[in-house]
């Protein structure tokens, strides 16, 4: 039989990082850069890029097929749920705009796997 000596764990001396609070977030479409921007307390902390599937220049209109390309959150805000807040808001806006989605981004794909209520937004061609 082995006996293990477990050293005492030192107390946490750094502040605990708060989880994302959707009420602090503002998501804005930034069509000039083909992305949605996530703002928290006036700071840009995340983006979700998109493009029209038909490769036509311009803002996707109602009912357009739109690829969600990539989701990025700053390192300082990572691991706290901000990406989920961003994706949720983008999917809600896509519903309002009648977009037919092509989720290229693996984070969006995983989000859709858990939040199946958004699956009807997927383009039939996917």
From TrEMBL:
A Pfam family this chain is assigned to: Acetyltransf_CG
Q: Which domain of life is it from?
A: Bacteria
Q: Show the InterPro entries listed in the entry.
A: Acyl_CoA_acyltransferase (IPR016181), Gcn5-rel_NAT (IPR045057), GNAT_dom (IPR000182), GNAT_YJDJ (IPR031165)
In this protein, which residues make up the domain named N-acetyltransferase?
A: 1-126, 28-123
Q: Which PANTHER family match?
A: BSR4717 PROTEIN (PTHR31435:SF10), PROTEIN NATD1 (PTHR31435)
Report the protein name in the record. N-acetyltransferase domain-containing protein
Organism, scientific name: Rhodococcus olei
């Amino acid at each position: 039989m082995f006996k293990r000596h477990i050293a005492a764990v030192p107390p946490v001396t750094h502040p605990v990082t708060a989880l994302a609070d959707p009420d602090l977030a503002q998501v804005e479409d930034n069509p000039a850069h083909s992305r949605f921007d996530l703002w928290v307390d006036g700071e840009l902390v995340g983006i979700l890029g998109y493009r029209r599937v038909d490769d036509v220049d311009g803002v996707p209109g109602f009912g357009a097929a739109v690829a969600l390309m990539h989701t990025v959150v700053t390192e300082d805000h990572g691991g706290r749920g901000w990406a989920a807040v961003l994706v949720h808001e983008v999917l809600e806006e896509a519903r309002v705009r009648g977009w037919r989605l092509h989720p290229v981004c693996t984070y969006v794909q995983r989000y859709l796997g858990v939040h199946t209520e958004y699956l009807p937004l997927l383009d039939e061609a996917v």
